[in-house]
């Protein structure tokens, strides 16, 4: 997630070029300095991502895919690498408050061990690991590898709690995360993974909000995450209450972390829950599989004001209102959950939430279930930001992939490019038109002569905002294992104001 919008003058222009923190322009945002031209968009020169420890199962198989799109205006130098991070444990020294720890261990001497290095922009590179000792990863890219750098972590678990396909986009470090849709119920085992990429410790608070408001938990306060380390915190150890629909707020007091929730279920498998987009009055949750047998919406209003939301489904034929679920009422500071059933009814769909009256900021996610009783699998789709300038999806395969594109407002035209394969293949591009108020599921283009995996980039050409998600499916023993990743802007550019005007500001 990248929530910080920077007002760039000459000093911060240099900072953005070095760190890669991007001030992404909004389509209709007014210029921050009246009477001046809009800032130019230049490629970032440095960026970072954090990948959580993939699994605690001894039979887990995990693959990593690193990809940087070819971006104009970059130089010839740079590199991108993923390094292993240490995992804290309950019996380790100075690990913060000891309650709530998973007890997982990893030899600190292994921290910093290279796991994956990129070779060239435009071509994915892959790596893998197995078992419960696979570490969290800390990644940094600079130069020509930084703009749009994307890393996908995909894990297959053959049996046990959380069995199925688990996928997550490795995220940039941040200071504030919202996770609606977690659970402390008896049949769920949910961990929030916290990874600190920096040289100093991070101090974190984990807050839980249920149907009646905040859950009391001193255990989740003032947690210390050591430098260059990662820690999974079992949510059920933070409270005595068992609730199936909760919202987690990760608030970083000091430093920054990467955060993701791993939700494991005894009956319906498991997956990663990525953080929701920033609290907003209107939200889009794209890419609900057309064969979903159950869709559960969880929403939370962080403030004191109640939110009344209109619920609509962007289908292939337009926006429709689900019968019996026209609206959802979310009380301020409380979590609301609504079962929408098989809302897509065999067609592509995305949820569009808009205020019925006044706009109140909310966060939201859906839990999606596919398959029949006894052979079911689940995944999560959080509310997401629009594609923006460009979005990138790594770890796409010749079969089993679906790209869902949604235009909740005006119609839009987008260009979708399939990269070269990790082991061979020629890139190919196709253009698609998404009608106003619709969702279109497309079978992604595949590189000619594909060998290995490949990446997809989505670039809006014209029209209104587009939201996207990629679904990866693998059938194992009759279970429709799947995982869904949303496609927000890949943070490939940074806004840089005119240098002459910046200097004049500094001289005042």
Instruction: State the share of residues found in helices, binned by percent.
Output: under 10%
Radius of gyration: 22 Å
Per DSSP, the total helix count is 2
* Class from secondary-structure proportions: mainly beta
Strand order of the largest sheet: 5-16-12-18-19
Please give the alpha-carbon distance between the first and last residues. 35 Å
Q: What can be said about the biggest beta sheet? A: 5 strands, mixed
Strand content: over 45%
Report the principal-axis shape: globular
- Count the E strands: 39
- The stretches of 5 or more residues where confidence is low (pLDDT under 50) are 1-36, 89-109, 501-508
- What is the averaged pLDDT score? 87
Short description:
The protein has 2 helices and 39 strands.
Account of the 3D structure:
With 508 residues, the chain is mainly β. Helix content is 4%, strand content 48%. It is built from 2 helices and 39 strands. The strands form 10 sheets. The chain has a 5-stranded mixed sheet, with no helix packed on it. Strands 11, 13, 14, 15 and 17 form a 5-stranded antiparallel sheet that branches. Strands 20, 22, 23, 24 and 26 form a 5-stranded antiparallel sheet that branches. β37 (467-476) and β38 form a beta hairpin. The longest helix has 10 residues, at 10-19. The radius of gyration is 22 Å and the shape is globular. The two termini are 35 Å apart. 52% of the residues are buried. The model is unreliable at 1-36, 89-109 and 501-508 (pLDDT under 50).
């Amino acid at each position: 997630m990248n929530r910080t919008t920077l007002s760039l003058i000459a000093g911060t222009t240099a900072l953005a070029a070095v760190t890669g923190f991007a001030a992404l322009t909004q389509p209709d945002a007014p210029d921050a300095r009246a009477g001046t031209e809009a800032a130019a968009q230049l490629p970032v020169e440095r960026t970072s991502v954090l990948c959580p420890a993939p699994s605690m199962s001894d039979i887990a198989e995990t693959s990593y895919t690193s990809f940087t799109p070819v971006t104009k205006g970059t130089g010839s130098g740079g590199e991108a690498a993923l390094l292993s991070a240490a995992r804290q444990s309950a019996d380790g020294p100075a690990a913060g408050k000891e309650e709530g720890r998973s007890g997982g261990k990893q030899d600190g001497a292994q921290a910093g061990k290279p796991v994956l290095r990129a070779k060239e922009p435009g071509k994915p590179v892959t790596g893998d690991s197995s078992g419960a000792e696979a570490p969290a990863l800390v990644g940094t890219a600079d130069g020509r590898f930084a703009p749009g750098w994307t890393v996908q972590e995909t894990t297959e678990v053959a049996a046990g709690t959380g069995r199925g396909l688990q996928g997550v986009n490795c995220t940039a470090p941040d200071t504030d995360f919202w996770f609606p849709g977690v659970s402390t119920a008896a049949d769920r085992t949910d961990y929030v993974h916290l990874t600190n990429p920096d040289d100093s410790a991070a101090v974190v608070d984990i807050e839980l909000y249920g149907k009646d408001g905040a859950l009391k938990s001193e255990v989740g306060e003032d947690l210390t995450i050591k430098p260059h380390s990662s820690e999974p915190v079992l949510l059920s150890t933070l409270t005595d209450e068992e609730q199936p629909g909760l919202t987690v707020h990760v608030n970083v007091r000091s430093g920054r972390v990467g955060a993701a929730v791993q939700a494991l279920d005894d009956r319906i498998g498991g997956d990663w829950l990525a953080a929701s987009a920033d609290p907003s009055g209107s939200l889009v949750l794209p890419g609900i599989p057309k064969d979903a047998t159950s869709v559960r919406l969880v929403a939370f209003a962080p403030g004191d004001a109640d939110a009344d939301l209109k619920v609509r489904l962007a289908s292939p034929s337009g926006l429709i209102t689900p019968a019996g679920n026209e609206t959802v009422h979310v009380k301020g500071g409380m979590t609301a959950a609504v079962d929408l059933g098989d809302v897509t009814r065999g067609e592509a769909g995305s949820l569009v939430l808009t205020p019925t009256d006044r706009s109140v900021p909310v966060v939201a996610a859906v839990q999606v279930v596919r398959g029949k009783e006894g052979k079911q699998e689940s995944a999560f789709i959080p509310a997401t930001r629009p594609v923006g300038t460009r979005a990138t999806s790594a770890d796409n395969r010749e079969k089993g992939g679906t790209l869902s594109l949604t235009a909740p407002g005006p119609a839009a035209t987008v260009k979708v490019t399939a990269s070269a394969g990790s082991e061979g293949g020629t890139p190919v591009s196709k253009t698609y038109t998404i009608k106003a108020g619709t969702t279109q599921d497309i079978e992604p283009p595949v590189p000619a002569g594909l060998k290995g995996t490949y990446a997809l980039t989505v670039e809006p050409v014209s029209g209104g905002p587009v939201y996207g998600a990629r679904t990866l499916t693998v059938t194992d023993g009759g279970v429709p294992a799947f995982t869904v990743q949303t496609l927000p802007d890949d943070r490939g550019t940074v806004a840089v104001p005119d240098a002459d005007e910046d200097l004049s500001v500094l001289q005042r």
